[in-house]
Amino acid sequence: MSDNVYAVSKVVGTSSKSIEDAIENAISTAGKTVKNMDWFEVVETRGFIDEGKVRYYQVSLEIGFRYEK
Amino acid sequence: MSDNVYAVSKVVGTSSKSIEDAIENAISTAGKTVKNMDWFEVVETRGFIDEGKVRYYQVSLEIGFRYEK
Amino acid sequence: MSDNVYAVSKVVGTSSKSIEDAIENAISTAGKTVKNMDWFEVVETRGFIDEGKVRYYQVSLEIGFRYEK
Amino acid sequence: MSDNVYAVSKVVGTSSKSIEDAIENAISTAGKTVKNMDWFEVVETRGFIDEGKVRYYQVSLEIGFRYEK
Amino acid sequence: MSDNVYAVSKVVGTSSKSIEDAIENAISTAGKTVKNMDWFEVVETRGFIDEGKVRYYQVSLEIGFRYEK
Amino acid sequence: MSDNVYAVSKVVGTSSKSIEDAIENAISTAGKTVKNMDWFEVVETRGFIDEGKVRYYQVSLEIGFRYEK
Amino acid sequence: MSDNVYAVSKVVGTSSKSIEDAIENAISTAGKTVKNMDWFEVVETRGFIDEGKVRYYQVSLEIGFRYEK
Amino acid sequence: MSDNVYAVSKVVGTSSKSIEDAIENAISTAGKTVKNMDWFEVVETRGFIDEGKVRYYQVSLEIGFRYEK
Amino acid sequence: MSDNVYAVSKVVGTSSKSIEDAIENAISTAGKTVKNMDWFEVVETRGFIDEGKVRYYQVSLEIGFRYEK
Amino acid sequence: MSDNVYAVSKVVGTSSKSIEDAIENAISTAGKTVKNMDWFEVVETRGFIDEGKVRYYQVSLEIGFRYEK
Amino acid sequence: MSDNVYAVSKVVGTSSKSIEDAIENAISTAGKTVKNMDWFEVVETRGFIDEGKVRYYQVSLEIGFRYEK
Amino acid sequence: MSDNVYAVSKVVGTSSKSIEDAIENAISTAGKTVKNMDWFEVVETRGFIDEGKVRYYQVSLEIGFRYEK
Predict the structure, then answer these.
(1) pLDDT, tens digit, for every residue of C34-60?
(2) SS3 state of residue A53
(3) Taking CA atoms, which of C21, D13, G57, K64 is between 20 and 30 Å from H8?
(4) CATH number of the domain that J42 lies in?
(5) Neighbours of L (≥3 Cβ pairs closer than 8 A)?
(6) Burial of D33 by CB count in 10 Å (0-12 exposed, 13-18 middle, 19+ buried)?
(7) What is the pLDDT along chain A (69 residues), one digit of tens a residue?
(8) How many CA atoms lie within 13 A of J12 on its CB side?
């Protein structure tokens, strides 16, 4: 983080595999429309259950990205 | 909610009628620029007072919508 | 509230009509298995969106009920 | 809101009818002793249950009012 | 999530392996006494340390399940 | 706390004597229907006032207990 | 609590003896200027230390009292 | 802070100049009706924007003052 | 604030000079892509340290702006 | 509190007797390694249960102490 | 946890691999200067992004350790 | 922030001049005993009042510093 201005977007990623995989999915999907992503913060970890097992993890992130100069 | 990635936008709707009406106004205005809205969460309920009566309810929502694949 | 001991259960009610109706649905369903309900507190108000309109309100309550003596 | 100084009071209104009615009751009662009320924020929504139905909604508000100049 | 009423239970799962494994343990144990589990939310992640290493992860979940109609 | 799974129940105890006594009342009443209680956390301390004195302390606890294996 | 409107005041009581005594001091002092006090909630517990011992407990309360009809 | 009882009032000050100036405005206005102010805590910092610049800072304070003995 | 609908964006401004300057930088950069900004709320104040001095203040704002009619 | 700089340490005291006794134990143990302790704030009150009774109270404090000049 | 007094330190661990690995790194580094570590609680999960992928997870822990008797 | 492990200390700085000056005082005093300070976060802004004016600002910071390798 330097002397730039950042915008922060909230994105929710899902994965049937792991919390880390849900985070990566959120970031790679967000990266299709947003450039210069710099950091994230996990703000919520949820999931869906099917037949007594986790079917999806759902992880909400705030993602910070630099405004282009 | 399925295996998609969602973005979350914060929107504030107002109504002189009711909290539910302020929520509907926020969602229908947001729907003019955003597609695939799926869920919302109320994060703040405020209002303005005029001559000892509620003039407007102001309800802040986080609205989740699916990224287009 | 008097000198009793209370248990607190968390219940989520839904309604397509209003926030108050979702609260009533939560309480009347909980009342089928729990007796002596005394008070509630709203802890979260969410909802689902369909074609740009609220389809369901989802209201999470904590419901307090007296332990039978 | 302009360049005034505001005081903020916490008031709890009740109503057997609706959340909005409890808010109006809180504001109109507060208005008997306080002038220049400008805005409110809902800080807690609770209620009492009688025979499996909501008997009262209890809504806690913070009400902002301008100091007289 | 549809137009049902849900109850929410708080459960703490432990695992020496991973956070995801602690979540799965909580859900599968809860599933022995509760049916129709639908979603969960992680509300706390703690753990115990033994000789400078994580011995157990302890993950607290709120688990939502549908009331039987 | 070991490698078990725990459930967490919310209970409110009251006492005209002290905060500690309200906690003990909550735990001993909960213990009539729940076994294997292990820990608690105080989540709210309230009370009722009568003629300018505390009439009851009301202490809300989350109580953790082991699932029977 | 019934169908009245309540105001809520924040008061800080101190005592060198106990938390309960600090609560009683706050309520009895507030009672000199406010009537119809009904309930309180503890919102903060602090204290001052002198020579390695607690010199004062400082307990912040929100006190609810009925508006006179 | 000594062995007194304190009341706590919430006040919002505004200033077009700085956060510190908004705090001073809140305190000096409150001081016209309240005596023995001892401390404050900033609970919210907001502001209004006009033509892309801050027009007012709005700082909400909780101000503690001693009850007269 | 009137009967409009508002969107809320989260922006982080930096400045080596002061908290107020970081706020102004966030708002003026956001103003290059967003119109009709109306209010802001400070949600986090952080900073970076270099050789024992503050090198940058980093202030996170939520900025509200009106949807164009 | 004057114009000094303070450090804040988090300490957890336990007692089988009372919440106040757990606070005193935390402070007197901390006082063996830290000087100039000035104030504390209770941040969590927990406990352990044995055979349906409180075995220990566990109270987490933040303790402020002055840096030596 | 028994009748000891505990100190709590806040530590941030990083890892390019997983959240669990960042936790282990925090604990093993803290263990070089602190003895008798007993438990931890995750208080924040953040990370840095490089070219659209997670480069580091950053996990903030509060670590509890027993005071030596 | 890179792949290091950080410790986080809580420090309270005071200044009669400004919030920024209180932050600088906290950091420069902490820097006498701690090396490699990297970032801070403001967690509380308070102050003391004397004769209706701010006498001191008191700003609580969490300061992050790298463990020496």
Answers:
(1) 999 999 999 999 999 999 999 999 999
(2) strand
(3) D13
(4) 3.30.1660.10
(5) H, I, J, K
(6) exposed
(7) 456 899 999 999 999 999 999 999 999 999 999 999 999 999 999 999 999 999 999 999 999 999 976
(8) 23
ipTM at complex level:
0.94
| Positions of chain L with pLDDT under 50 | 1
Taking phi over 0 as left and psi of -120 to 50 as alpha, with beta for the rest, E65 belongs to beta
**Closest residue, chain H, to L15 (C-alpha):** H20
Angle at G43 between CA H64 and CA E59, to 5 degrees: 140
- The reply to whether H11 falls in a domain is yes
CB G63 within 8 A of CB G12: no
Containing domain of residue B13, as a range?
A: 6-66
Per-residue pLDDT averaged across C21-45, rounded?
96
Q: Does residue I36 lie in a domain region?
A: yes
Query: What are phi and psi for residue L19, nearest 5 degrees?
Result: -65, -45
| C44 reaches B (C-beta below 8 A) | yes
Chains H and C touch (3+ CB pairs under 8 A): no
Give the model's pLDDT for residue L69.
Answer: 65
What would the two tokens of residue E32 be? 């022995």
- Among candidates L16, L26, L48 on the partner chain, residue whose Cβ is nearest the Cβ of J5: L26
Tell me which residue of K30, K13, J4, L6 sits closest to I48, measured CA to CA: L6
G35 within a domain of the structure (yes/no) = yes
**C-beta of residue C37 within 8 angstroms of C-beta of residue C24:** no
Measured CA to CA, the distance from residue I8 to residue I28 in angstroms comes to: 16
CA distance J2 to chain K (A): 26
C-beta atoms of F5 and E60 within 8 A: no
Interface mutation vs chain K, best among A40, A60, A61, A62, most K CBs within 10 Å: A40
* DSSP designation for F17: S
**E62 Cα distance to chain centroid:** 7
- Distance CA(D6)–CA(B51), nearest Å, equals 16
For residue A1, is it within any domain? Answer: no
The most distant pair of C-alpha atoms in chain I lies apart, rounded to whole Å, by: 50
H62 touches chain G (CB under 8 A): yes
Tell me whether chains C and K touch (3+ CB pairs under 8 A). Answer: no
Residue partners of E9: CB distance under 8 A and separation at least 6: C10, E30, E34, E62, E63, E65, F7
Select from E61, L47, K39, K11 the least CA-distant residue to H22.
Answer: L47
**Taking CB atoms and an 8 Å cutoff, what residues of chain K touch J10?**
7-10, 62
Report d(CA E64, CA C26) in Å as an integer: 13
Considering its fold, how many domains does chain C have in total? 1
Q: How far does G18 lie from chain J, in Å, by closest CA?
A: 7
User: K9-38, pLDDT tens digit by residue?
Assistant: 999 999 999 999 999 999 999 999 999 999
State the smallest CA–CA distance between residue K61 and chain A in angstroms: 14
